[in-house]
Design goal:
It is a single chain. The protein is mostly helical and about 190 residues long. The chain has helices spanning about 20-25, 45-50, 65-80, 90-95, 100-110, 125-135, 140-145, 150-155, 165-175, 190-194; strands at about 10, 55-60, 180-185. It has a three-stranded parallel β-sheet with strand order 1-2-3. It is globular. About 30% of the residues are buried.
């Protein structure tokens, strides 16, 4: 994957190729990449470093409706598993690095929720409401209003932040993606992983 001395930034959009982590594990991560924020958006400083060639950004993208359906079932299953008495967090990121007390408190304050909290880019009242009502709703009812996730992440916003994008925003996202070191599509997984 080119110069391995340049840090890697994996733009990990929720439900867009988590297993890609295995392909990137041997590359040095960019210093700005927070290992405890698995779904960290591509902020302005990081995007500038990418354009300057000082950072390799890679990402997988997915058809939006398919991504939302996958998110719905992932949240539903994670919450169901979390209610099981034998549930234990297996987060590799947490195991790798000691946490300061403030970060640890933030990371684990929603222990009754299985996944998909602040790192997905939505505020606690919103994700708590979604998690609470999700079992009785269809995927569209539960998550249909959270559109633009992939554009949000490319532009530096959280996936589920509910930003509304103009044509100019979409064009800006496309310009950023043009500077990515690698872009894959989950619908073309084998081709993307060659």
């Amino acid at each position: 994957l080119g110069d391995t001395s340049i840090g890697m930034w994996w733009l990990h959009i929720p439900k867009c190729g988590t297993s890609m982590r295995q392909n990137l594990r041997h590359f040095p991560w960019a210093a700005e990449r927070d290992p405890l924020n698995e779904h960290q958006p591509l902020g302005g400083r990081v995007a500038s470093r990418m354009v300057e060639g000082k950072l390799h950004v890679v990402g997988m993208f997915r058809q939006p409706e398919e991504r939302l359906r996958s998110a719905y079932f992932h949240i539903k299953e994670s919450d169901r598993e979390k209610q099981q008495p034998s549930f234990q967090s297996s987060s590799a990121a947490v195991a790798r690095r000691p946490l300061d007390p403030h970060r640890k408190k933030k990371l684990f304050r929603d222990r009754d929720i299985g996944c998909c909290v602040e790192d997905w880019g939505w505020k606690a009242p919103t994700f708590r409401r979604v998690h609470t009502h999700l079992p009785s709703l269809t995927p569209e009812q539960a998550l249909g209003r959270f559109h633009g996730c992939q554009t949000n992440m490319v532009l530096g916003f959280g996936c589920m932040s509910q930003k509304h994008h103009s044509k100019e925003n979409v064009e800006a996202a496309k310009r950023r993606i043009a500077h990515f070191f690698f872009v894959g599509l989950t619908a073309q997984w084998k081709l993307s992983m060659c």
